[in-house]
Amino acid sequence: MKKIPEYVPGKSIDEVKRLFGLKKVVKLASNENPYGPSPKVLEVLRSFDKFHIYPSPSEMEELIERISEYLGVEGERIVIGAGIDGILENVFKMFVDPLDEVVIPIPSFPYYHTLTSVMNGKEIRVRRKGNFQIDEEAILNSITEKTKIIIVCSPNNPTGNIEDADTVRAIVESCNALVFIDEAYAEFASRDLLELSEYENVVIARTFSKAFGLANLRIGYAVMSSELKKAYMKVTTPFPVSSIAILAAIASLEDLRHMRSCVEKIRAERARLYAGLKDRVKVCPSEANFLFFESLMKASELAEELMKRGVIVRDCSKFVGCSPFSVRVSIGRREENDEFLKALDEVLRG
Ligand SMILES: *Cc1c(COP(=O)(O)O)cnc(C)c1O
Hints:
Layout: H1 13-20, E1 26-27, H2 39-46, H3 57-71, E2 78-81, H4 83-95, E3 101-106, H5 111-118, E4 122-127, H6 136-142, E5 147-153, H7 165-173, E6 178-182, E7 202-207, E8 220-223, H8 226-235, H9 243-254, H10 256-277, E9 282-283, E10 290-294, H11 299-308, E11 311-312, E12 314-315, E13 326-330, H12 334-349
Helix pairs in contact: 2-9, 3-9, 4-5, 10-12
Bound molecules: pyridoxal-5'-phosphate.
């Protein structure tokens, strides 16, 4: 069997309750939307009764139309997938043969490393600059005739920074490799990279998991050239997403007010949490629904101590390119964030 890096998800609330005998546990580890999806989603799901029928292409077409209106991009350039993860898997299947190279600016989302390994590709790690923005020159220097995919994650998980369109454009224009732009957190950011979707060698991926609060339904989408979409449709599983997920996504787009109100609250809390953290730890400004920080305590120890106090954060010390002190905390509801700050204070004061 192949040696593939293991994806280690964070511990669940129930696990932590059991482990430490706690009644109340706050999970700020997976960048979920603490307010959940629109009530319209719940309504649609309650009345669903076609469990025995395969998803119909017309539902998919309707969702594509809604996304097309939401983004202002033609439907013939939009694909739906089982989350960005599912879309990444298909795109890697299309582009990466054994020994092909995938350029990954580090640190970033761990699944890029997993997929490269699954495809027997070769990962080319390029360290980010001091502010965690991608290093254009280093990336351009790393490109060879074997380079098939260059990953750009903006806002980047786990660091939270966004990329400049001009920097990414320069990379897109100077190579034939596919530039995969992961915008899982676009709704939380002040600007996005959608303008680059016009290029033949660009895929821009988005999801309903984060701002729309549908992480459990596994549904995302991507914008690509219509040529690329044709090739993509040959590679994907015949029914990548359930009708439930499709109908929930449609309902989400029919209630953008809900999503925007969640984003507004999360941004306000992000600013408050940042202010609360900046005198205690080294915290990075963020355009996403999480904050990345380093303290003087080892991240594994800090995460463990916080967990004992009922707060789950993400220890990022095992992320490729992170330091032993790197921690990511998702922005929760106000009271959850207060629990986190209180526990952190206790832990750091010793
Ligand atoms: C959460 C996340 C994903 C996964 O999104 P799904 O649509 O739930 O598969 C992809 N990329 C990044 C950077 C993420 O943080």
